[in-house]
Amino acid sequence: MRSDTYAPTTYRILIGKPGLDGHDRGAKVVARALRDAGFEVIYSGLHQTPEALVQTAIQEDVDGIGLSILSGAHNTLMPRVVELLRDEGADDIFVFGGGIIPDDDIPQLKAAGVAEIFTPGTATSTIIDFVRGTCDKKYGRSDSGDP
Amino acid sequence: MKDALDHQILAGNTRAAARLMRLIDDRHPAAPDILAGLFPHTGDAYVIGITGNPGSGKSTLVNQLITEFRSRNDTVGCIAVDPTSPFSGGAILGDRVRMQDHAGDDGVFIRSVATRGHLGGLSRSTPAMVQVMDAMGFDVILIETVGVGQDEIEIVRLADTSLVVMVPGLGDDIQADKAGLMEIADVFVLNKSDRPAISQLRRQLQTMLSLHHQTSPDDTYRRPPLINTNALTGDGIDALVGAIDDHRLHLDEILDPQRRFQHRCAHLVRAIARTELEQRFHSACHSPDFDELIDQVADGRLDPYSAAQRLAATMLR
Ligand SMILES: Nc1nc2c(ncn2[C@@H]2O[C@H](COP(=O)(O)OP(=O)(O)OP(=O)(O)O)[C@@H](O)[C@H]2O)c(=O)[nH]1
Ligand SMILES: [Mg+2]
Predict the structure, then answer these.
(1) Which of B127, B206, B212, B290 is deepest in the core (most CB within 10 A)?
(2) Burial B266-288 (b: 16+ CB within 10 A, else e)
(3) Domain range enclosing B157
(4) Class of domain A12-138
(5) Does the reported pTM lie above 0.90?
(6) Where are the alpha helices (DSSP H) in A16-73?
(7) Any CB–CB contact under 8 A between A37 and chain B?
(8) What's the ipTM?
(9) Could you tell me if B4 lies within 8 Å of chain A, comparing CB atoms?
């Protein structure tokens, strides 16, 4: 079950919307971009708790979770997801985030274990490169990995 | 990897099961051995297939069915299949969005699967994934097919009870006849019964079923019931579960458990062998021998029919 004995043919990513805000346009744009780049994307729908997202990530055996948060609650919700993954022994699943997140908050989110934060206006290609690169690294693949 | 995974799965470890499902989907060479170890622990789950046109409400119905089965204390596994994009090989798997009522319930395991080029409404991996959930001890396993409305015959072999979902106003009745759905339905679900055209759909289906009944040669033919549901409110879901229970009793009457298990084994062996052959075919077509064979055909040294025979022979070595 360890990553070093297995390299998947297709990367799987969960796109989650924790918290109260009801705007999922950004989440859907990222989901579609990832699909078009060959990823299998599980979309959670709105208003998921961190607990539900972590359960979904485990059932779906995803490589990473992308969290889209526009409500301003990123400082609690994002670290919470990281923490729950750790509690489940699933911290090989990386967490990245997007939404309206002030620059000042980014260092502390990264310190809490969030792998990357994308602010509005980031090109989807940048997000895809990051996700693919992080997956490749996870499975010990060089930059030219197949999936 | 093997020992660890199958023991963990039998002990109910979701992470291990989820990983095995991925190995299956990826056709990892370690998967068959692990599955073989799980097989003696399977056969107890009741498998229900849900098919119907895109947007007919399959996922919303599954959400309600899970609620109903959970209220009886049955644990529920669900495999929700969505199409893979033929352009990128990627997929958006969104059925879970409608199943959020069960987020956080440990008695419910939902797995989203992409078709990865397989036709027939399921993924190649679905039969083996059912095995994994069965071995984990789930009482009921629900399978939501892609719902292209055509060619969804595979689900019938895999499921004990197949539900076909129809909605008013789509000309679904005609579609059903064309796609052979009349043959596969054990229960017709008339969803979106909050719409006025529901009674018209019901009448049309009844007429078609009567015609079908008269021409059906099979004496074990059982006319499928029509159940109205509103998957948004849950209206009619108790009747739907009642109809599933009735069909289950009917199966018990016409086939003893031993025979039924045999049918299931036959399906499983066929599915596994087909996957194996597909894989061998794929490698046979991507080998130097293949290129050499094609050169011979192109040069006029060999005819295509003999070449195909030789190719088939190498697959079976
Ligand atoms: N009015 C009404 N709408 C419904 C009913 N059931 C489902 N819907 C709606 O129909 C739409 C499609 O529902 P889904 O459950 O996603 O349908 P599906 O068959 O799973 O769709 P695919 O997985 O894309 O094939 C959603 O907007 C649902 O809210 C119903 O009984 N009545
Ligand atoms: Mg659906």
Answers:
(1) B127
(2) eebeebbeebeeeeeeeebeeee
(3) 43-255
(4) alpha beta
(5) yes
(6) 25-36, 50-60
(7) yes
(8) 0.92
(9) yes
